Amino acid sequence: MTTPVRHRIRQSFERAAATYDAAAWVQRLACHTLARELPSALPATACLLDAGCGTGYALPLLRSCAPQSLILSCDLAPAMLARVAEPSARLLSDLENLPLPAQGLDLYWSSLAWQWCDPQRALAEARRVLRPGGYFLLCSLGPETFVELRTAFSAVDDYPHTLAFQSPEMMRELAHQAGFPGLRLIRQRETLHYPDVRSLLRAVKAVGANQLGHGRRTGLLGRDAFARLRAAYEVQRATAGLPLSYDLFFLFGTG
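Structure (tokenized):
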């Protein structure tokens, strides 16, 4: 698995901060699904981390299970952190290198941020900062994410046009190796529909999900290439419109 270089990810989410909340339907759904696995109560002195918090949508959900606890909101993009309204301690940081002491967290939460990380590095950091017996809750994206988009682009060129998403089974195995044995796995698919290719691509860009790893196409699509893309996507049109799927998986348990 390759991921975009860190400054490109930061730039993408800096640009997406103003449009993110209006477009992040699946991201909100993922937070609510993950929140079902939150512990019913935590000690008043507990410390919780939202790793990759974005604009802070999950913070009230975390607060509901720990009203008096310290909540840390962490993101790579300053413009995202600037939009966090919920009271929290804000950390401008990479999830692969957290500025936190070892074994200081009672709960580690990350929803739809790890697809931008090296999973082994992010897992090592999560294990380092989480106390023994602390809660680990993760949502990320599996390999069927944007499958329709990849299929349509295959009629245009041979470049990768989406990330190479990690399989949930491999992620669970990596987590086991990192010191998170016995995590439970849930997987679900959510499909959005759009009236045309341009609006679909705008929606992907609006949530910052348009960065790629190595081997990406560096030039813009020409008129002929875009026409081929549009025609290839039209073959997949459903009654509701052009489909775009998110392959969500959830891993949770204690470390």
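The longest strand covers residues 242-254. The chain is about 35% helix and 25% strand.
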